[in-house]
From TrEMBL:
This is Stage 0 sporulation protein A homolog. It is found in: Cytoplasm. InterPro entries: CheY-like_superfamily, Homeodomain-like_sf, HptR, HTH_AraC, HTH_AraC-typ_CS, Sig_transdc_resp-reg_receiver, Tscrpt_reg_AraC-type_HTH. It comes from Clostridium algidicarnis DSM 15099. One of its GO terms (molecular function) is sequence-specific DNA binding. Residues 3-120 form the Response regulatory domain.
Length: 517
């Protein structure tokens, strides 16, 4: 509601304007009335009206003189000038004043209403422009883009940002990634607008809402609340967001700080909200509550990733699940960085893919395309989501491997594959394997290609190379010894085969590349 001050030395003129106009419909309320210019100036200081409707000819000082003085106090105030004299000098002064309208008595009600509508339209436009400018300045301050704190505070004060002791609350729409996946920007925009409306409803003290990202808004507000009142207000806010918008939000709440420390306050709110990775969504997370538990320790999961690889080859679902839970428990205990957790999660999946690729059954699962992993992982925001994401991919890999085993059994080559897996280090031929499995060489060759995706020689080479990679990772490894252990009596031939398979000689692999495999 815009506040209107009516100034006229005639009582009935003031009463007529107060009672004949439907101020509510116009989005206005009469905040006061004055019978002369001096009174109007005093009331303006106290009431700070948005619109002043004033007669010109009054005792003491004229309405125009009063308006010029009030303009110095309230530069955004809109004036509607009323006079009984159609004189050019008055009109000229009204133009200088940038009055919205110059209305002759007797007052035409429709003309006055139109003038009030023009005033509110200009005020709304001014309010929007000011809000946008305030939001821009606050965002610059939050991101530390001012040269120093004094110029920052001065700039905020000049923009009429009336804050002293502040808190910042970062709010993230937990449904944002779902909206992006549905390509539903309109729905996301509507939800964000709904969140804004509920912020203004629940925050009674002076507050400003700043769009920081597509998925995050921040509330910068004067914190006069005690802790219990703040918690109650935030609980009510999140509850109504869920009831009205049918979404959940996660809040990161900073400590109290003076306005000059707005950048630090914003950093605290972001750090708090980032802990939804460990605590889950639909939470109110206070920065002060995460300080004690925050320890940044660099973890090394190289051993666990290798063990996971072996468990996948063994197709041991229970142990895979236990190992994965152990890894994610360590993430939570040591508060690992989000990017680090994503990276390890993706590496575990890629390790599993490498097992599938060994048998050339990779193409059977289009859902395992590597490009999809990075895309989906980027959308996940909590440990629980990332755990389920990794586990679901590992189960897909296990199913593909089990399908391969079932196909091998159906075609009668399971026994042949089992023999190769146990004797690949020896000098065996296709004939040896065919005789062991009671199959013809031509049938075995065709079925291996169909089920495994590769022929007999390639399959043995892969088994040998994968075992060589595993052995070369061990400390103080001798290349000649590894060559013998994987079935290559000729060290030079092993080196050639290894380089063809990996792109590196065994010595290069030991020196620089073993951690990449």
């Amino acid at each position: 509601m815009f506040k209107v001050l009516i100034v006229d030395d005639e009582y009935f003129a003031r009463e007529g304007m107060k009672k004949t106009i439907d101020w509510d419909i116009l989005g206005c309320q009469v905040c006061g009335e004055a019978s002369n210019g001096i009174e109007a100036i005093e009331y303006s200081k106290k009431l700070k009206p948005d619109i002043i409707i004033t007669d010109i000819n009054m005792p003491g000082i004229s309405g125009l003189d009063m308006a010029f003085k009030v303009r110095e106090l309230l530069p955004d105030c809109k004036f509607i000038i009323i006079t009984g004299y159609d004189e050019f000098q008055y009109a000229k002064e009204a133009i200088k004043l940038k009055a919205v309208d110059f209305i002759l008595k007797p007052i035409d009600e429709d003309e006055l209403i139109e003038a009030i509508k023009r005033s509110t339209k200009e005020l709304n436009k001014l309010s929007l422009n000011r809000a946008l400018e305030q939001e821009r300045l606050l965002l610059d301050a939050m991101r530390g883009r001012f040269s120093d704190k004094k110029s920052m505070v001065d700039g905020l004060r000049e923009a009429k940002i009336d804050l002293n002791i502040i808190r910042i609350i970062s709010i993230e729409n937990d449904s944002y990634n779902e909206r992006m996946e549905e390509d539903s920007m309109d729905k996301s925009y509507m939800q964000n607008n709904g969140i804004r409306e509920l912020i203004y409803k629940h925050f009674k003290s002076k507050c400003y809402v700043v769009d920081c990202h597509l998925y995050r808004v921040a509330i910068v507000f004067e914190d006069n609340e005690d802790k219990d009142s703040l918690e109650e207000m935030l609980n009510n806010f999140t509850k109504e967001v869920n009831e009205v918008l049918n979404i959940t939000v996660t809040l990161g709440v900073s400590n109290k700080k003076p306005l000059r420390n707005i950048k630090e306050s914003y950093s605290e709110s972001k750090e708090a909200i980032n802990h939804k990775l460990y605590l889950g969504k639909n939470k109110i997370i206070y920065f002060e509550s995460i300080l004690k538990n925050d320890s940044h320790i660099t973890l090394d999961f190289t051993k666990e990733k290798r063990e996971m690889n072996l468990l996948i080859k063994a197709k041991d679902k229970k142990k895979i699940q236990d190992k994965l839970k152990s890894i994610f428990t360590r993430f939570k205990i040591y508060k690992s960085e989000e990017d680090f957790i994503r990276g390890v999660s993706i590496e575990i999946i890629l390790e599993a893919f490498s097992v599938v690729k060994t048998y050339d059954t990779y193409s059977k699962g289009e859902e395992l395309e590597e490009a999809n992993i990075y895309k989906y992982a980027a959308k996940l925001n909590t440990l629980d989501e990332l755990y389920e994401f990794v586990y679901s991919y590992l189960i897909k890999v296990l199913n593909i491997l089990r399908e391969r085993d079932a196909a091998a059994e159906e075609t009668g080559i399971e026994k042949a594959v089992e023999f190769i897996d146990h004797h690949y280090k020896e000098d065996i031929s296709l004939k040896d394997v065919a005789n062991y499995a009671y199959l013809s060489e031509s049938y075995l060759s065709r079925k291996m290609k169909k089920v495994l995706g590769i022929g007999f020689s390639e399959y043995i080479t892969r088994l040998r190379m994968e075992k060589a990679i595993e052995l070369l990772r061990e400390p103080n490894t001798k290349v000649a010894k590894v060559a013998l252990e994987v079935g290559y009596p000729d060290y030079r031939y092993f080196s050639q085969s290894f380089k063809k398979y990996t792109g590196y000689s065994p010595s290069e692999f030991i020196k620089d590349k073993k951690e990449e495999y």
